[in-house]
Design brief:
This protein has 75 residues and is mainly beta. The chain is built from no helices and six strands. Helix content is 0%, strand content 37%.
Length: 75
């Protein structure tokens, strides 16, 4: 939110089933968004843009939503 309390979109996710639950920002301006199954790290770039990085266990680099629940496909 800005100083006037207006929310500004920082990142538009094309993914489904992400369900953001909380967020934190570190001293460098990196934003961490906790989600149902993953953490999204938004790293500041030039011109108020962010580079999105998905943090997840190595064995879950490939996942498949099944009946609204994500499961790992890889090991």
């Amino acid at each position: 939110m800005d100083i006037d309390g207006k929310a500004n979109e920082m990142y538009k996710s094309g993914e489904r089933l992400t369900y953001p639950t909380s967020a934190a920002i570190d001293a460098n301006g990196v934003v961490y968004v906790a989600m149902r199954f993953f953490v999204l790290r938004l790293v500041p770039q030039e011109a108020s843009r962010y580079n999105a990085e998905w943090l997840m266990p190595e064995q879950c680099r490939v996942f498949k939503p099944e009946q609204y629940i994500c499961g790992c496909e890889g090991k």
